[in-house]
Amino acid sequence: MPLFDQLYNFAHWLTQNREDAEDLVQETYVKSLKGFSSFQLGTNFRAWMYRILRNTFLTSRTGLRVTMTVPLDPEEDGPELAVENHTPETILMNRANSELVQASISELPIHYKEAILLCEVEEMSYQEMAETLSIPVGTVMSRLSRARRALRESLGRKMQNDKAIRTGTSHGL
Question: Quick one: 134 exposed, middle or buried, by C-beta within 10 A (0-12, 13-18, 19+)?
């Protein structure tokens, strides 16, 4: 099926649930087949499918409930060491960092989450994103900028909280 993996990946990010993502993709294909006569040849099929998925998600109960905010400043962490080997410690740190990013993305408001995912994960162009979201390219760029800023701020807070917990300097300890 065309675009299945990409649509499922996007659906899973939106729903945060495997079964809901599967249902969302299935419903997307059903709607696309029923409405295929509305697809205009020569236009962007990928954007059309993502738009169907997005609209289906937004009109679902899950989409209506969805709602929040990350900078990494390597200068603050000091110099990085070049490590070729993956040790259990580096694997754990990479996994923890990945989980922090995923948690921060999941907290973004839906319109920011969509912008980040379509651009960074699905690697869509601004034009494809505009077509998918049915908004002007300028709005895409604005949302993406704001989403990245919110993501940086969220990650910054999470990392500070994590560091305070590890060092025992958080309030209440």
Answer: exposed
Residue recorded with tokens 């709607």: 31
Q: Is 147 in contact with 109 (CB distance < 8 Å)?
A: no
Pull the structure tokens for residue 154. 């969220």
Q: Would you say residue 37 has pLDDT above 60? A: yes
Query: What's the rounded Cα separation, in Å, for the pair 55 and 132?
Result: 10
Contacts with 130 (C-beta within 8 Å, 6 or more apart), sequence order: 136, 137, 139, 140
pLDDT digits (tens, 9 = 90+) for 69-126: 333 444 444 444 444 455 565 566 666 667 778 888 888 898 999 899 899 888 889 9
Residue pair 70/104 in contact by the 8 Å Cβ criterion: yes
Rounded to 5, what percent of the chain is helix, strand, coil? 75, 0, 25
* Residue 56 burial (C-beta neighbours within 10 Å; 0-12, 13-18, 19+): buried
